[in-house]
């Protein structure tokens, strides 16, 4: 992995609770709170100064801008929700550019697992564990925050274990 283990270890304890919050919120109300996105971005702004080499820091912030622009276009085209686009942008600085292919694999696996688990729970007695969740009744819509938050959390955990 291109992310350093030290960087991932710095980020992980601050980022993981936000990832869990985003997943839970998207399952519960089908929205990723703006305050969660701003918290994630703020964590990077502060912790990134300690966790990354100073030369990498501004380039990683540029990841946020690039992914935000792509997300806005994808949202305008109806491909993803606005919260998903904003969360992806706030998560982008945490990812080393050399790990982009690995991140895509983690996201793909998370999408398959998350979608399957959500649909199994939706159509079985497991649904009674959280009957008020809006994600059960939104038809074909899927709470992507579950997979986006999981992807960032898994990426940083793997980085902490196997990073350079």
UniProtKB/TrEMBL annotation:
<feature type="transmembrane region" description="Helical">
    <location>
        <begin position="35"/>
        <end position="54"/>
    </location>
</feature>
<feature type="domain" description="Prepilin type IV endopeptidase peptidase">
    <location>
        <begin position="15"/>
        <end position="115"/>
    </location>
</feature>
<feature type="transmembrane region" description="Helical">
    <location>
        <begin position="142"/>
        <end position="162"/>
    </location>
</feature>
<feature type="transmembrane region" description="Helical">
    <location>
        <begin position="100"/>
        <end position="121"/>
    </location>
</feature>
<feature type="transmembrane region" description="Helical">
    <location>
        <begin position="61"/>
        <end position="80"/>
    </location>
</feature>
<protein>
    <recommendedName>
        <fullName>Prepilin type IV endopeptidase peptidase domain-containing protein</fullName>
    </recommendedName>
</protein>
<dbReference type="GO" id="GO:0016020">
    <property type="term" value="C:membrane"/>
</dbReference>
<dbReference type="InterPro" id="IPR000045">
    <property type="entry name" value="Prepilin_IV_endopep_pep"/>
</dbReference>
<keyword id="KW-1133">Transmembrane helix</keyword>
<keyword id="KW-0812">Transmembrane</keyword>
<keyword id="KW-0472">Membrane</keyword>
<dbReference type="Pfam" id="PF01478">
    <property type="entry name" value="Peptidase_A24"/>
</dbReference>
<dbReference type="GO" id="GO:0004190">
    <property type="term" value="F:aspartic-type endopeptidase activity"/>
</dbReference>
